[in-house]
């Protein structure tokens, strides 16, 4: 029987994903009708990225929604969705994030800015410490946080990770819960946020938790904007308590032209480019979940709708 798959994502993605999805599903021997529009009552799967679809009520035959994005905050709380929601865990996305995080950690660790901006004729030989003398904390030990933590630990950094439940990552000191966060921030010279945006993670870094950091700590946020209380971070940057922040994600995107982050001397803004789902690998993940759905097997990467990630 033909499986009806509706692609509901920004239109620019359709010509990229259509041949990949068709090809992989054909290889799996799944007879599929893949389109951007169907009568909702005949759709079996929705391949989803935020683009306007909000009401799933008319999708009476739907078996699952398969997200192209890792972050699902725009759909996890949608009460019209009553079937499984799977998020994206994609090798290309993970690799891209690891490279971005390692690059920005090394920028801080090696003090690269001092030489890019120039020593102004002063022969100042500040040799950077070794990675083994640098404490990096990663908030979030999921698919992305774990990969970044392992890569940094392999370079020799003293890596601490923090998650909601207990985790075990080789070479990484793993902490969880409220007291775990305090310990994780207390000694962190560099903090990387790779948490999802949920009601429980909003303002994880706020005036109180920022105060736990040693003076001059640096912050790297490729997670989501709402993880940080912006007012508290700006105050901590102004006072010098936080030495610098590299921010890839924001509460409002694109970041408004008038936002103080754009002009703050101790903030680097990157425009939500830390990583992205790579179609060649991500299409395989989507097709594997369709295969599983048709075979009656459990879906990969299911979202816990109660937790929101
Ligand atoms: N900037 C970009 O380009 C970009 C690209 C892709 C993704 N992202 C962001 O990166 C986020 C993380 O992705 P992922 O694939 O690593 O997610 P994930 O696999 O779901 O991992 C999330 C991690 O956060 C932890 N966590 C969740 N709620 C928590 C809480 N209340 N307290 C403490 N820890 C909590 C989880 O703890 P447990 O381990 O106990 O479950 C888990 O370790 C995404 O949600 C998205 O927002 C950004």
UniProtKB/TrEMBL annotation:
Record keywords: NAD, Oxidoreductase, Pyruvate
Pfam families in UniProt: 2-Hacid_dh_C
Keyword NAD: yes
Molecular function, one GO term: oxidoreductase activity, acting on the CH-OH group of donors, NAD or NADP as acceptor
PROSITE patterns tied to this protein: D_2_HYDROXYACID_DH_3
Domain D-isomer specific 2-hydroxyacid dehydrogenase NAD-binding residue range list: 120-274
Highest rank taxon of the organism: Bacteria
Presence of keyword NAD: yes
UniProt name for this protein: Glyoxylate/hydroxypyruvate reductase A
Source species: Ruegeria marina
């Amino acid at each position: 029987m033909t499986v009806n798959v509706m692609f509901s994502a920004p239109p620019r993605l359709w010509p990229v994903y259509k041949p990949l999805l068709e090809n992989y599903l054909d290889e799996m021997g799944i007879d599929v009708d893949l389109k951007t529009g169907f009568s909702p009552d005949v759709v079996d799967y929705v391949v989803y990225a935020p683009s306007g679809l909000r009401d799933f009520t008319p999708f009476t035959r739907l078996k699952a929604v398969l997200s192209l994005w890792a972050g699902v905050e725009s759909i996890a709380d949608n009460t019209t969705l009553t079937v499984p929601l799977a998020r994206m865990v994609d090798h290309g996305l993970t690799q891209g994030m690891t490279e971005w995080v390692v690059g920005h950690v090394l920028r801080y660790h090696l003090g690269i800015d001092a030489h890019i901006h120039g020593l102004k004729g002063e022969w100042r030989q500040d040799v950077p410490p070794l990675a083994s003398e640098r404490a990096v904390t990663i908030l979030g030990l999921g698919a992305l946080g774990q990969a970044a933590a392992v890569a940094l630990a392999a370079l020799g950094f003293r890596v601490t990770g923090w998650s909601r439940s207990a985790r075990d990552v080789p070479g990484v000191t793993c902490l969880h819960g409220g007291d775990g966060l305090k310990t994780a921030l207390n000694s962190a010279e560099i903090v990387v946020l790779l948490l999802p945006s949920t009601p429980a993670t909003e303002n994880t870094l706020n005036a109180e938790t920022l105060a736990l950091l040693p003076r001059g700590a640096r912050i790297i946020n490729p997670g989501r904007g709402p993880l940080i209380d912006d007012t508290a971070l700006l105050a901590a940057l102004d006072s010098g308590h936080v030495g610098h922040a590299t921010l890839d994600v924001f509460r409002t995107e694109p970041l408004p032209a008038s936002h103080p982050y754009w002009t703050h001397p101790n903030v680097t803004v990157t425009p939500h480019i830390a990583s992205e789902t790579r179609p060649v690998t991500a299409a395989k993940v989507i097709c594997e979940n369709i295969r599983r759905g048709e075979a009656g097997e459990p879906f990969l990467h299911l979202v816990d709708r109660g937790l929101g990630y």
